[in-house]
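Contributing new records

If you add data, match the layout below exactly. Sequence lines come first and carry their own label; structure lines follow with theirs. Keep one chain per record. Anything else will be rejected by the validation script.
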Amino acid sequence: MEDSTDLLTSRLPFPPVTRSHILHCSYHHWHPKYRSITPKARLIPLSAPFLSYLRSDGIILPPDSPSTDIDLSSTDTDSAIFFSTSSPNTSDPDDSDSDTSDPDPSTHWPEIHQKITSTIIELGGNVIPKLNWSAPKDATWINATNSMECRSANDVYLLLKSSDFVTHDLEQVFDGCYSESPLSPAASNSKDNEKKADDNNNDNNIPYHLILRKTIPALVPSLEFRCFIRHRSLLCICQRDLNHYDFLPGLVPTLRPLIERFFEQNLRMTFEDESFVFDVYIPPPHQRVWLMDVNPWAPRTDPLLFSWLEVLEMLEPVSPSAATTIPIDGNAGGVSRQDSHGGEAVLNEKNYDDNRSDDSASDDEDGEEAFTPEFRLVGRDDPEAYAFNTPRYSAHKMPKDVVDAGGCGEAGLREFMGRWREVVREQESQDAE
């Protein structure tokens, strides 16, 4: 399955994805420029010892600090998660258990630990963490709140160390990237000119940051949208939450021009790359747009209600200015068609007067009408609207070895269970000795 997916991805007409494009989409890179249009957040530079802690096996959390003003009572104390029981300042050399106690990992990065704690307090005691590119959405199952909300530094560590997405940021962020030299589509297939990230995937120079964003009270997931930009033109928009909402189609005439103006005024000519994907949030009363994230124009970015083949084959306006011709009053006209996932991409048209002249109709046929990006929503009868029994990121709740064995069918699972029993018996015999 993995080979077939890689083959399909390699056949998509993507331009070469470079290291610089990935770095431009890093939160620490674009946030200073767009800080005024993003939710309140603080960035904490991460040291090498802290990154080593994130990469290390197992989850050992610092001891609860009695001096903190944050309630740590909700921290998970499952037997697979260990709290440090000793520190250089409190350990007793005569204590018989001192040899088996877990050391405090934060002694190697005390400044970062203190900064995280103080930042959580500064932001109101409730934050959402992420690294440069990814948030630990796949690890919410391990958090006591079953969400990404963190009330203590230990909540942050628990999510980061339990997330495959965060591990990807640390270990594989440049996978599939090419050299910085411009490559033609033909040249990009040549082994002589192709330089994958495997050759230069040295993350020693990546300025890793921990982003702590103030939790948005009463955030409405249905009002988060993903926007696709190609050659500085807004091609299409879709909702991020994969559920059907009856009220959304009626908001499209308001939301689409808001997003168009936001892109034109803030991102179109200021972002370094011509093609990228960004996420926005438009809370009630739908008068302000917040920039939530910027994602690379690459197969790794989830196209959600579209397929990447659809997006790549979409027509775009002849000039970028054509995509931004929108009325000042905010009424773009034309409610979006509710497309099914994987359906054909159909450009939404404005409702013109039925009595328009033949001349105006011929002008439209010539492509002179204002370009309207498609706004795709989950329809009432779409499969996504009924996927309540399949939580997102459920595959990340099992060890990767188990998921890989399951992909090989019953025989793979039996082989895995046999190896596991041998490991358990060997461990038991060593413990008995």
